[in-house]
Each structure stands twice: as C-alpha cells, then as structure tokens.
Amino acid sequence: MNSRLNTDVLIIGSGIAGLFAALKISEYADVILVTKKDKDESNTNYAQGGIASVTSKYDSFENHIKDTIATGAGLCNEKMVRIMVEEGPQRVKDLIEIGTHFSKKDGEFDLALEGGHSVPRILHAKDLTGKEIETALIRKVNSIKNIEIMENTLAIDLITEHNVKKLKHSPLQSRNCWGSYVLDSYTRRVIKISAKVTILATGGLGQVYQHTTNPSIATGDGIAMAYRAGAKIANMEFIQFHPTSFYKKGNTNVSGISFLISEALRGFGGKLLTNNGKEFIHQYDERKELAPRDIVARAIDFELKKHGDQYVLLDVSHKRAEEIIDHFPNIYQYCLGEGIDITKEPIPVVPAAHYSCGGILVNEYSSASFRGLYACGEVSMTGVHGANRLASNSLLEAVVFANRAALDIERFLKESKFDFPDIPDWDDTGTLTSEEKILISHNFKALKTIMWDYVSIVRNNQQLERAAKRIDLIFQEVEDFYKRTKIFSELLELRNLITCAQVIVKSAIMRKESRGLHYTLDYPSMSNLAEDTVLQNTQL
Ligand code: FAD
Ligand code: SIN
Q1: Looking at the chain, which terminus has fewer C-beta neighbours within 10 angstroms, N or C?
Q2: Each residue of 405-432: pLDDT tens digit?
Q3: Distance in Å, CA 512 to ligand 1 centroid
Q4: Measured between alpha carbons, how far is 178 from 161 in angstroms, rounded to an integer?
Q5: Distance of CA 315 from the midpoint of ligand 1 (Å)
Q6: The domain spanning residue 134 has which CATH number?
C-alpha cells in the first residue's frame, strides 16, 4: 500500500546542510525533512577539527581564498571560493545565534591551525565541533512548526520525468524534479512525497571504502539518485583520504569505521613518526605535518609500503598533558579506551577514506541540473574544493551554500507555476520478500575491498580497469536481486554504493594526469589543462 504526501520543499538529510537549509526555508515555506536514521546521525555529528572562517584581525579573506585555491591543486572555481570565504563569517554568526558555542580563550575565539592554512582560523568546540553544531541546529529545527521531520525514512529515488512513463524520453536539459519516493525503514512502506523543490543534503560516501572515518549513513545515496535520474555529477575521482585515523589491530567491523584523529592535533604540534620513531614528513613537503592532506596521506602511504608497516605514529606527548586533555577530550578518552594515553605515548595512525570532493554539479545557488532540484553539503560539487579540500572548509561550504539555496528557492517558488504530472505510485508488483541478507553483506564487503585495494591513494590504469570489471559483476548481481525483491534499506544503500563506485572509477579513468587527491602511476605529473570531470547518465 502506498501513501502520498506533499509539501513546498522536501529536504533529504539532517546534517548541517539539510538542517541549515530547513531553518532558512521555514521562514517562507513548508518543509518536510526526511532522514534515514535518527536525526542526529550524520557525518556532521562526528566532525572534530572545526569550521574555517575569517574572524581574526590577523587574517583576511584574501588569505583564506589563497590557501583554499593552493590546496585545491589548480582546480578550484575561484568565484565559488570567494563566495564561500566572504559569506562565511555571517553564516558562522548564524550558527552562534542559534546556540552553537565555539571554544574561546581570553574572551576571543580559540582559533586552531590545520594543514594548508597559513594562519590559525578554525573555530571549534574542543574536538566535538560537529556534535555542538548538530545539537544546536536540531534544537532550533525542533522548535519550528512548519518543519516536519521524518526519521528512519530513506529516500529511494528522485521523481523526475524518468519515472513518469509517458515523459520518460524527454530531454535531459529540460527535466524537472517533483519530489522523491521514500521508504519507511520499519514498515517497509514506500511513500511518494511530491514537492515543488527537492534538496539533496545526503552527505558523503566514505562507506564505499574498506576503511573510512565516515559513519554507516555515508553511502552516497544522493549522488546515486541524482546520477540515476540523469543529473550531472562532477570530479568524483577526488576522494580525500584523511592521513590520520586510529589504527586498530585487526579492525574487522563490516562498516570499517575508523576513529578520526583530528588534523588539529598536528596543528597543535603533533609529530608524525615512523613505526620505529623516525621523523619522515620533512622529506615530502617543507610544511611538514601541516602540508595539505593529499600530500601527507600519500607520504604515509609511501612510508607504510616502503617499510611494510601497518601504521605510523602521531605524537603529542611532548605537549602539556592538561592542554592536550582540555583541547582534545574526545580523542584523549577514545585512545585511553584503546589502551593509549596520548599525554604519554604516540598514537598509531593510518589514512582512511574521509570526504568526497566531487558530487552533484551545482551553480552558485546550489541549483543542480534539473528545475526544482538543489544539492548542498558534501553531496554537491560547488567547485570550492577543486582537487583537494582544505581542512575544515566542508562545514563552511555546507552552511554558505545551504543559505544560498534557501535564497534562490524563495525566488523560484514566487516566480514559478507548478504543474505536476500524474506521478505513479511505487510499483513493486512481482517482487518477493527476501531475507537473503548474505548477498548484501558479501557484496558490501567485496565492493569495499575492491575500492580499497584498487582505487585508493595511489592508482594505476590496470587496477582501475580491474576494479571497473569487478564492480560491474557486483552491479549485475545486485541489480537482478533488486528487480526481484521487495526493497529494504541495506539493499538500497548497497545499490547506491555500487553506483558511486562506478562513477568514481569512471572519473578516475577519465583523468589522464595526477592532480591533488588523484595520483596515478601512469600519469605522474599534472597536465596544463585544469578541467572538471563531468558525468551524466544518458541511458534513461
Ligand atoms: P551529513 O552531515 O553527512 O548529513 C547527511 C544526512 O543525510 C544524514 O542525516 C543522513 O542520514 C542523511 N541521508 C543520507 N542518505 C539519505 C537517504 N537516502 N534518505 C534520507 N536521508 C539520507 N569537515 C569540516 O569542515 N570540519 C571538520 O572538523 C570535519 N571533521 C570531520 C570528522 C569526521 C569523523 C568526518 C566523517 C567528517 C568530518 N568533516 C569535517 C567533514 C564534514 O563533517 C562533512 O563533510 C559534513 O558534515 C557534511 O555535512 P552534510 O550535511 O552534507 O552531510
Ligand atoms: C579533522 O578534524 O581533522 C577533520 C577536519 C576536516 O575534515 O576538515
């Protein structure tokens, strides 16, 4: 049995981007916000280091722009970077106004330093910045009557011409988005939500890799949905590996979630050492521990392979114990739980998949390639990160472009006439309920291993081609299962991860150079041509 709902604006995702957009949009329109688990479960909630923004008299917009562009390895869109940096301080004020408390020292923001930043500019709430922001946003959103939040509700597919039979073959460049089919994860009931505007704020896709700092929700659903519907997706080869996640011997949890050891620890004076206690990072970049992430992650990868080691070490034990515990209480407690007192001994660390710089291609108002479809936060590709994101620019990008989406949607709702076609109900006739969970868990593991082994920090053509073939086999098997089976969350997430993996590999094969986060042994230098990789599914 199907149900129907309708609203002005449907927002998919309850991280910083979705919640911030909801707040702004609720000032002039009704919002339904769906989120696939509990509302605070998001990458945002785990953000540690903080949010980069120019708030100090020792800093300037030009500095922040320069650092962002230098880190982006020649591929940042300067206009978009300028927007993000210049509008950043106002959005930070908005966060403070709704009740976010950033750490202070002597009455001023206690600004931290991270890799690629030329001055301290990271506002943080100790090492739990994401939780502080997420909690403040949820508290505020809960108090607003015209925002309806539906938890444990997973968006399955966008509603566009591609799922209205008689409109199926209409041209991609003039498509509309009319909402989404969503799954109530408990009852397995599919609900059709029609909306004048749909915002994808579904976050990242770290779960496509065997080892990731991302929680289990990060399954690239928004990118896969948009790709399936024919929207443009860009720069998916640029997967950021965070240099330092906690190395846990024999970490075999299926989701492969690794605890992050914040870059702020290196900004605080943390030293990277090989397993036998030798400094090495000066051989790779004169900025040493504070070089951009692509460089540090590659250096660690190289050292691990050179020595056959499982991890390198990150040492802050030369700093004052009280200071360490005061600034990094969460990391301190976590490590203590794992038997490491970071005030006395170094932390074993390894790189892990962390962030997707690519995503749904949007303009300066977060509008994607269909009328009525917007994307903001990690799921989007605004152009601000180029080939490598500057640390702590993600939370900033999310609030700046969520705000811009809200501004544009107000205009769009006023100026537009809405003519909804007869949208079909979800059709699952002929499918059977299956409990064949082994097919899901097996393919989930296989996909993550392929991506980790063949599409990681250092790539080559042969491995990328091999990955493409193996992922296609998994795709066929899961697609066949999908067509025969009544849908459930894990199946949809696996299907989405497979699509993301295909898009990442395709983009990586297309880029015939090494740039930022995409490093390939077959083309080890950067070309003179700095271009985005844009993919669009035309098989609709
Ligand atoms: P998210 O916060 O991930 O929210 C996505 C939401 O969408 C979730 O609610 C999810 O459940 C929901 N969702 C997904 N798919 C569906 C679906 N199909 N249907 C319904 N709902 C769905 N960045 C910084 O700038 N500074 C930092 O200090 C920092 N630290 C980080 C630390 C960690 C451990 C991690 C993992 C990331 C960190 N990042 C940091 C990156 C940053 O946290 C994320 O990029 C950012 O929070 C993304 O926000 P978002 O709103 O786009 O997505
Ligand atoms: C960190 O705290 O190291 C994460 C910061 C980020 O991803 O920007």
Answers
A1: N
A2: 999 999 999 999 999 999 999 989 888 8
A3: 30
A4: 9
A5: 28
A6: 3.50.50.60
